[in-house]
Specification:
This protein is an alpha/beta fold. Helices cover 38% and strands 20% of the residues. Pfam families: Aldedh.
């Protein structure tokens, strides 16, 4: 079978380069289990070349090449990238669906968000021109202080496989808007569209070395990037375990990091809801992106006096979700990303049954799909708070359900987690929704919905879900450093030390 994806090399210093050792990684279509192409397997030597290219681009002409250009200049390239993504939307969406398994409609939505994110940060880049020298009011009129916002430098961007191009864009767009130069290392399980981003950058004339893309295994490319002394900051989205390693490596040389890690978010449903609306948001919160989303509201807390009718309707509706090849029209659940992830999800399901949870629906491979890494959308009731499926992130289409009696009990159960990325509350009582939203220990809270995400709003978590915020103005601040410049403006001698007498 001929490869179904473009053949690309590493993108370093504005050039396509074969990896140092010539290695390749097979790209497996998770819906068919077929090899559809290959991506280059970078090593530490390739990462070193990419960091050098980024450093040269950052310092070239004392920053006049990129880092110290106007925001208006940088915005021109961001808008050109956005326009090219829009022009190639259908192609990019299809590549994304084949590479990571998400339904084509979702992938197309992602491409709209990618273009919108580049456009948004183009606007913020232009805004930096007016904020370049902020005056600070001082208590002494003999001094004048300005605050400069400057790009932090060369940044390493390490991104996950569930939103390959979109989450890369969440980092690349603000980094470039700020004037940083970047090395993007996407997940080896889904790198295809990130290599296409490199192609787009080359096409629009982004200066060489400003964006470099290296693909490869985490241990061979991601680890050397996070440890590299020539990288001024690392921004990472992925597992908590990998985040710990990155934070440890950064600590050795006092390097700042932004970490967006795992989650085990709760959705609280009170008894005054419209059942149909609440059921659909519950499904969307956990089955969107095939359940492979860090903010998945995969713990349902359901007020006990509506539990029976709610769960009956939830199981009925869940069974109607179209599970198919992601490229089929109307697909609403595709495969998980890899064989390894499939086995992991199925192990969680079997363990939940062993621990006494009640399987309401799903829990197995769909009968009509003999190939591919498909898992039926799965709902467990009567899940104990001590059970594995309640405490750990599954990263698959699996929902764990418990009931509660009071608002206080629901909040306690929701917050009883080592994670704190997101949470949701569904109720017609607006005051109650506001109370619960303020008490949930999470960086993101949704009221009467789940999963809406906007480029303009901050994204990030608390506790073991990481720290720092992406998106919005907060995302831009990730890639800026603050410099104080204070000037003595008096004509008078400072006068702290007595003058020596003249001989």
């Amino acid at each position: 079978m001929a490869p179904a994806i473009p053949s690309r090399l590493l993108y370093i210093g504005g050039q396509w380069r074969a990896p140092d050792l010539g290695g390749q990684i097979a790209v497996i279509n998770p819906a068919t289990e077929d090899t559809i192409g290959y991506i280059p397997a970078a090593t530490a030597a390739d990462v070193d070349l990419a960091v050098k290219a980024a450093r040269e681009a950052f310092t070239k002409d004392n920053g006049k090449y990129w880092a110290r250009t106007t925001g208006k200049y940088r915005a021109k390239f961001l808008r050109a990238i956005a326009a090219e993504v829009t022009a190639r939307k259908s192609e990019l969406a299809e590549l994304e669906a084949m590479d990571c398994g998400k339904p084509l409609d979702e992938a197309a939505w992602d491409m709209d968000d990618v273009a919108g994110c580049f456009d948004y940060y183009a606007g913020l880049a232009e805004g930096l021109d007016a904020k370049g020298h902020l005056s600070v009011e001082l208590p002494m009129d003999t001094f004048k202080t300005n605050v400069l916002k400057e790009p932090i430098g060369v940044v390493g961007l390490i991104t996950p496989w569930n939103y390959p191009l979109l989450m890369s864009t969440w980092k690349v767009a603000p980094a470039l808007a700020a004037g940083c130069t970047a090395i993007l290392k996407p997940s080896e399980l889904a790198s295809v569209t990130c290599l296409e981003l490199a192609s787009i950058a080359a096409k629009v004339g982004l200066p060489a070395g400003v964006l470099n893309v290296v693909t490869g295994l985490g241990k061979d490319a991601g680890a050397p990037l996070s440890k590299h002394p020539g990288v001024d900051k690392v921004a990472f989205t992925g597992s908590t375990a990998t985040g710990k390693s990155i934070m440890g490596a950064a600590a050795e040389i006092i390097k700042p990091v932004t970490l967006e890690l795992g989650g085990k978010s709760a959705i609280i449903v009170f008894d005054d809801v419209d059942i149909e609306k609440a059921v659909e948001w519950t499904m969307f919160g956990v089955f969107w992106t095939n359940g492979q989303i860090c903010s998945a509201t995969s713990r349902l807390l359901l007020q006990e006096n509506i539990a029976s009718v709610f769960l009956e309707r939830l199981a009925e509706w869940t069974k109607t979700i179209k599970i198919s090849n992601p490229l089929e029209p109307g697909c609403r659940l595709g495969p998980v990303v890899s064989e390894g992830q499939y086995k992991k999800v199925m192990k969680y399901i079997s363990t939940a049954q062993e621990e006494g949870a009640t399987l309401l629906c799903g829990g197995k491979r769909p009968e009509h799909l003999s190939k591919g890494y498909f898992v039926e959308p799965t709902v467990f009731a009567n899940v104990r708070p001590s059970s594995q499926i309640w405490k750990e992130e599954v990263f698959g289409p699996v929902l764990a359900v418990r009931t509660f009696r009071t608002e206080e009990e629901a909040i306690k159960l929701a917050n009883d987690s080592e994670y704190g990325l997101a949470g949701a509350v569904i109720s017609t009582d607006e005051e109650r929704c506001q109370r619960v939203a303020e008490l949930l220990q999470a960086g993101i809270v949704w009221i009467n919905c789940a999963q809406p995400t906007f480029t303009q709003a901050p994204w990030g978590g608390t506790k073991r879900s990481g720290f720092g915020r992406e998106l919005g103005e907060w995302g831009l601040e990730n890639y800026l450093s603050v410099k104080q410049v204070t000037k003595y403006i008096s004509e008078e001698q400072w006068g702290w030390y007595p003058r020596p007498s003249k001989m």
